[in-house]
Amino acid sequence: MKQVPFHPEELDLFFKQLWKKSLNPFWICKPIADDFEMILANPAALALDPRQKPGTKFSELVASGKYPDGILDGYHKCLADKMPLEFEQTPVINGKEYLFRTFLVPIVDAEDKVTHIWGTSHNLTDFIDPQRELLMINQYLDAKVQERTAQLNDAMRRLEKLTITDELTQLANRRYFDDALKREIGRAKRNNQPLALIYFDIDYFKTFNDTYGHTAGDKCLRRVAQVLSRHAQRAADVVARYGGEEFVMLLPNLTCKQALQVAERVRTAVTDLAIPNADTVAGIVTISAGVAVIKESSASADTLLKLADNALYQSKSKGRNCSLIAD
């Protein structure tokens, strides 16, 4: 017969009932400096010892003389080994000595750090497999922790991506590029390798927007961005939207000749899109490029950007739809 799984609401209700109505004491504590602090105890635990309230230190409980010496050793061993631990204790409560088998389970976070310890004690006269009961709780909690951790990590990744991605083109944004440029400048200096930067600008884009509308302009930007992405395939290559219709491509360890070849391939691929633009000589959308490469150990990010910008200005001055290397 196929087993029907519990719904999350049913599981929550189950463990709430287990916590409140179980005849066995359950508690949660957390490690503090050379001690442990009570976080929560169920009604069965409080019935045995009302002092087990949130904030109570275990050393205070032991100091009362109602608990055997060395009981804290079990908690320290559980904390150190990060493994479930079982031991016996004989507390004296209200003048009566009890013989309990205590079972501790460490709760370990994603960084392999014990944040809490779950505990339960069973009267040995009514001993009914305490491991199964507590391990079931621990497995459920562990699954919930893993689920919530995965959800949090996914949300953090999506948030991080939003902060470094241009929403329209899905390329890296200027913030990410600026950080990458500083990083690659440092790497180029350490490895004594060249670093190439290509500055692209869509020709007559403002008039394109005026003529064809902003919706067509956004579509044009996305298509040009796709072309750029296809020509920056190495792991260290970075392509980003730098401004409105401006794009940058960072290419580590490329010579001037190699970088110019990349720029020309991009320029040609953009013309191959054949996006109509009546304001250009070719009658289609074109792109201009300025190429700069630094080799000197004293070069800075500002130097490389200025060189590429000057080369782009020269390509614009010479009629656009061309790629030039910085002088």
TrEMBL record:
Cofactor: Mg(2+)
Pfam families named among the record's database cross-references: GGDEF (PF00990)
Superkingdom: Bacteria
InterPro entries xref list: Diguanylate_Cyclase, GGDEF_dom, Nucleotide_cyclase, Rev_trsase/Diguanyl_cyclase
Catalysis: reaction(s): 2 GTP = 3',3'-c-di-GMP + 2 diphosphate
GGDEF domain span: 193-327
Gene3D superfamilies, A to Z: 3.30.70.270, PAS domain
Enzyme class: transferase
EC number: 2.7.7.65
Entry GO MF terms: diguanylate cyclase activity
Protein name: diguanylate cyclase
Organism encoding this protein: Pseudidiomarina maritima
